[in-house]
Amino acid sequence: MPFLTFEHGGKWYELKPSGISKRICGARKKDGSRYRSKSLHRGSKCKFHGGLSTGARTPEGRARAIAAMRAGWVRWMLCQRAQKNQNTEGAL
Question: pTM to 2 decimals?
Answer without folding.
Answer: 0.43
